[in-house]
Specification:
Blueprint lengths: L9 E2 L8 E2 L10 E2 L7 E2 L34 E3 L7 E3 H11 L12 H9 L51
Antiparallel strand pairs: 1-2, 3-4, 5-6
Length: about 170
């Protein structure tokens, strides 16, 4: 639904939506992929939205690059959910998140947990796993493991491995 080419393997997680897209095409189509929990993806119509709070004293600059940011709710502009005084371009906060790893607080209020969870929900992936920091946060209700751990058993409804559900190899 973005590039109109074959082989799109990501389907919107919204019930009843059949929009599919390639992961590399997702940013161009303003789609959001959540890299935690059940790894859900959403099309441009059903992606999570932030409730933007407009303060008269708030300026319209990105707190990272200090360039002009939109003064409205959009895919390209994110806001700190705690203090609501910081605005970020999506690409600026993404670059910062990839370098910051698990120590990724808001630049204005320095609040970490609500800010991290909001950024993850809005599709900003981090370079390190956060599952061990937030074991209670399981949006899908399923058990989730940190990103860097392999599963020890097949959970498919019908296991197709000739060695059975418990079979594993050293490299995958």
């Amino acid at each position: 639904f973005i590039c109109h080419k074959m082989g799109a393997s990501f389907t919107c997680s919204h019930l009843g939506c059949d929009h599919t897209f390639h992961l590399p095409c997702a940013p161009e189509g303003e789609c959001v992929t959540q890299y935690f929990g059940a790894y859900r993806s959403f099309c441009w119509e059903h992606r999570p939205q932030q409730a933007m709070h407009t303060h008269p004293s708030q300026d319209d600059t990105c707190s990272i690059c200090l360039d002009t940011a939109e003064h409205k709710n959009s895919y390209k502009t994110l806001e700190c959910p705690t203090c609501q005084d910081a605005r970020f371009h999506r690409h600026c906060i993404q670059r910062l998140a990839l370098h910051a790893g698990i120590t990724f607080p808001s630049l204005c209020c320095l609040n970490q947990e609500p800010f991290l969870m909001e950024m993850l929900t809005m599709g900003i992936p981090l370079s390190k796993s956060l599952a061990f920091l937030f074991p209670h946060h399981k949006p899908s209700g399923r058990n989730t493991a940190p990103f860097d751990q392999r599963r020890g058993r097949c959970d498919a409804a019908t296991c197709l491995c000739p060695g059975g559900r418990e079979h594993t190899e050293h490299k995958g």
